[in-house]
Amino acid sequence: MKVTVLGAAGGIGQPLSLLLKLGLPAGSELNLYDVNPSTPGVAVDLSHIPSAVKTNGFAADDLKKSLEGADIVVIPAGVPRKPGMTRDDLFNINAGIIHDLITAVSESCPNACVAVITNPVNTTVAIAKKVLSSAGVYNPKKLFGVTNLDVIRSKTFIGEILNEDPSNISVDVIGGHSGVTILPLLSQVKGLSLSDDEKKELINRIQNAGTEVVEAKAGAGSATLSMAQAGFGFIEALVKGLSGDPQRVCAYIDSTNDKTEFFAKPIMVGAEGVQEELSYGDLDAIEQAAFEELIPALESNIQKGNEFSK
Ligand code: LMR
Residue 151 has what pLDDT? Predict the structure, then answer.
């Protein structure tokens, strides 16, 4: 398996690359690319860790080289939020970055699976689709927005409430990856019994967990380590799926049967990317109200991506 990380020298890119170096199957190749000239050094640093994953570093003008032969491209590149900003406020800078990186993907590895972490994910994934489509290489089964951070946060917070090991908690998060578009399906979590107020409070905490980190870091950026772990978890599932061992994950995809063009939901990833879109079951009254609220917000995020041109 060949995986390229775009934005590999950044706050998410470095720990994500470390996790991939340690966790990709033996014989895999890991290409690190960033505009930062230190990127080949990051690859050398990782290369001293004894794992059977080969690391290569690329910087600046070597973007296309870093993508040659990639099966999976994961993109944490871009600027993070500062306190007081929404993910949408990153659009002006990150939209152009995604546009350029996806253009290179469309030229160098048009058949690769692409996993977008760059915010605002609800919008950058739509931009990626547009770029790939205009290059004539778009495959809806191979484009993903990484929303696994919402899932791992939900597991953690629910584990705290239930006083249980969070890794044993199973929860789906649907919608998108910002504010009200994040909808954790708490009514389906085994053993979790909350009052309406407690449920609303927990939904609110999960929706604002990214902001909790941004404020705690006080101007030094947003979630990097938990984002790297979430990104790794998604890529690990995708690698297994592509290798013939289908996996269940939640991700933001070009959905065939939802109210918006893109929607985060449980899916099976298999040998060709999205193998199956799974049902997320019935919503309770609180979730249904949150669902009604998220649809127009998500639609407008997607429309912004569809209208973007460079
Ligand atoms: C997160 O959820 O932590 C990331 O999307 C980063 C952010 O800006 O919140």
Answer: 98
